[in-house]
Design goal:
- By secondary structure, the chain is of the alpha+beta class.
- Among the domains are: about 105-205, OB fold (Dihydrolipoamide Acetyltransferase, E2P) (Beta Barrel); about 240-380 and about 450-580, BirA Bifunctional Protein, domain 2, CATH 3.30.930.
- Helix content is about 35%, strand content about 20%.
- The protein contains 17 helices and 19 strands.
- The protein has helices at about 1-15, 55-65, 70-90, 105-110, 165-170, 220-225, 225-235, 235-255, 300-305, 345-365, 385-395, 405-420, 425-430, 435-445, 500-525, 545-550, 565-570, and strands at about 35-40, 120-135, 140-145, 150-155, 180-185, 195-205, 260, 270, 280-285, 290-295, 310-320, 330-340, 365-370, 375, 380-385, 455, 480-485, 485-495, 555-565.
- Strands 7-11-12-19-18-17-16-15 form an eight-stranded mixed sheet, sandwiched between helices.
- α8 (about 235-255) crosses α10, α12 (about 405-420) runs parallel beside α14 and α15 (about 500-525) runs antiparallel to α16 (about 545-550).
- The longest helix has 29 residues, at about 500-525.
- The model is unreliable at about 1-65 (pLDDT under 50).
- This is Lysine--tRNA ligase.
- Keywords: Aminoacyl-tRNA synthetase, ATP-binding, Ligase, Metal-binding, Nucleotide-binding, Protein biosynthesis.
């Protein structure tokens, strides 16, 4: 009973964003009343009244982490008891609704002109939000309320509330609770705009303590795993998702203004096509067959072109059963678009249009900062072929190798060995063509250097099974990738429309995949190292229905896929893709 009373007092008066360090500061035997209680969300050490008799255990408890399991459970137990107590008094601590007249920002904007000490008695407002700070001075209490728009102070005076309500405020309201309050508008003598509370109601009773705001929620894994707590403790996190929503909205506006139609294609597919990536596999019980989560929306969108729609796009989730890093998440969001009677030059213009419009919507300018680097999005952007970029960086012109893949590998090994140590031999050893070797050198040496917006043009045909052959350069395709800050943002081609060529490319892609998988498996058996084997431990299937659709005739077209997550990273200055995905995939917590 003595312990319960001590924790009750601490929970009622001293918890500041989970600050329970002084939870047992006042022994039960002490009946001294203190005139001043202060709770702040900006410090981990809430001001505690001096105990009548110092307790040795107090210093130990103060050393205990405010997020420790024992403290957390103690607070939860006390708050559950408060819930029971409220209900016994006829109050429901989990309300159905609250009629709100204004947001915090609306009030701040509308009444900022008030002089210090001035009150608008003729105005009655209603506000709601989460309590993030609390200070009590005998017959006066101040609460800071935060809603989606910002914060505002609640000025609670005993004379303006019924005795029952003021007692409820002192006894039952904790930091983290969601309140509704109504009253007039007042600016305090210190110039703080406040709602002069005449009535309030607990709308949701919080059972768990919030993180200590002074130290914040510093556990990165916990921030991602419990994003809701992250957003409460770090309000700026919510701004990232507001900006993300604005970017997606701006992309849709851009597409609609250009006459594109948004369509939806299957997430569950009979064959995972449109890219080369390891898919997630599931089993459909009624159909008695395996299905795959899509690795791209491309092939179904092209079917829409065959069907007669000339400008289509889809914003959707893509799933790839691959690695996790600051740049990769197993599920991510893209926009893919296809336009009939255009080529990849049109898609370069489209990429510039989408990115610049989004930048202007978010920042109002085209010169931005990303992780300390100045990025200029002013158009036009640099355009350079893959071959020329590799030649500029290494002095090697891979065009000179023709079809001599062994000679290309030998030269590439010398280039890559300093970068990749012993891994270069394994990667290059499985390359079946000069085009693949060129791509390995490009990805290892060049990609990370492409800081300012750059269109990398004209990829080898061997690594571009869905792109149209280049109309001027044999062995290349009309394909580009857009890089900003060393990251691929978009991938586009003049689309392949010849069904015979498409079937041949698919068959060659399957052959190359199987050969690479066999080579890596043999390498792993001889070295007892599994490096790279899992990346190719899946089957690549030929999508017969897509080839059939091409045989009905698809108009000349261009298409592009643009990574929305990476675009949001760029425009919110976020270092990791996990910062821009609300609930990223994480390892199982041990």
């Amino acid at each position: 009973m003595m312990d319960a009373l001590r924790v009750w007092r601490a929970s009622s008066h001293l918890i500041g964003f989970a600050s329970m360090a002084a939870a047992a500061a006042v022994p039960t035997a002490s009946r001294t009343r203190f005139r001043f209680h202060q709770i702040r969300c900006c410090s981990s050490a809430a001001a505690a009244p001096a105990a009548a008799t110092p307790a040795p255990a107090t210093s130990d408890r103060r050393r205990r982490s405010p997020s420790s399991t024992s403290d957390r459970e103690s607070v939860r137990a006390i708050r559950l008891k408060k819930v029971e107590e409220l209900r016994s008094k006829g109050y429901e601590p989990y309300a159905y609704k609250w009629d709100r007249s204004n947001t915090a920002k609306e009030l701040q904007d509308a009444y900022d002109h008030l002089a210090s000490g001035e009150e608008c008695k003729e105005v009655s407002v209603s506000i709601s939000g989460r309590v993030i700070a609390r200070r009590a001075f005998g017959k006066l209490a101040f609460l800071t309320l935060r809603d989606d728009s910002g914060t505002i102070q609640l000025y609670c005076e005993k004379e303006s509330l019924t005795d029952d309500l003021f007692e409820q405020l002192k006894t039952f309201v904790d930091i983290g609770d969601i309140l509704g309050a109504s009253g007039s508008i007042k600016k305090t003598e210190k110039g703080e705009l406040s709602v002069y509370v005449k009535y309030f109601k607990i709308l949701t009773k919080s059972l768990l303590p919030l993180p200590d705001k002074y130290h914040g929620l510093n556990d990165v894994d916990k921030r991602y795993r419990q994003r809701y707590v992250d957003m409460i403790a770090n309000p700026e996190v919510a701004d990232v998702f507001r900006i993300r929503a604005k970017i997606v909205s701006e992309i849709r506006k851009t597409m609609e203004s250009l006459g594109f139609i948004e369509v939806e294609t299957p997430v569950l597919q009979g064959a995972a096509g449109g890219a080369e990536a390891r898919p997630f596999v599931t089993y459909h019980n009624s159909l008695g067959r395996d299905l795959y989560l899509r690795i791209a929306t491309e092939l179904h969108l092209k079917r829409m072109l065959v069907g007669g729609l000339e400008k289509v796009y889809e914003i959707g989730r893509i799933f790839r059963n691959e690695g996790i890093s600051t740049r990769h998440n197993p599920e991510f969001t893209t926009i893919e678009m296809y336009e009939a009677y255009s080529d990849y030059e049109s898609m370069m213009t489209m990429a510039e249009e989408i990115v610049t419009r989004c930048a202007l919507a978010v920042h109002g300018k085209l010169n931005i900062d990303y992780q300390g680097t100045k990025i200029s999005l002013q158009r036009p952007w640099r355009r350079q072929s893959m071959h020329n970029l590799v030649k500029e960086a290494t002095g090697v012109d891979f065009n000179e190798f023709g079809d001599n893949v062994e000679a290309a590998k030998e030269v590439a090994q010398g280039i890559l060995r300093t970068k990749m140590e012993d891994k270069s031999d394994t990667l290059l050893g499985t390359c079946p063509s000069v085009g693949h070797v060129l791509n390995e050198v490009f990805e290892t040496i060049i990609e990370s250097t492409l800081i300012q917006p750059t269109f990398v043009l004209d990829y080898p045909i061997e690594i571009s099974p869905l792109a149209k052959p280049h109309r001027r350069y044999t062995g290349l395709t009309e394909r580009f990738e857009l890089f900003i800050c060393g990251r691929e943002i978009a991938n586009a081609f003049s689309e392949l429309t010849d069904p015979i060529d498409q079937r041949s490319r698919f068959e060659e892609q399957i052959k190359q995949h199987n050969a690479k998988r066999a080579a890596l498996t043999a390498e792993s058996k001889s070295t007892e190292v599994q490096s790279g084997v899992d990346d190719y431990a899946y089957e690549v299937a030929l999508d017969e229905d897509f080839v059939t659709s091409l045989e009905y005739g698809m108009p000349p077209a261009s298409g592009m896929g643009l990574g929305i997550d990476r675009l949001v990273m760029l425009l919110t200055n976020s270092a990791s893709i996990r910062d821009v995905i609300a609930f990223p995939v994480l390892k199982i917590q041990q």
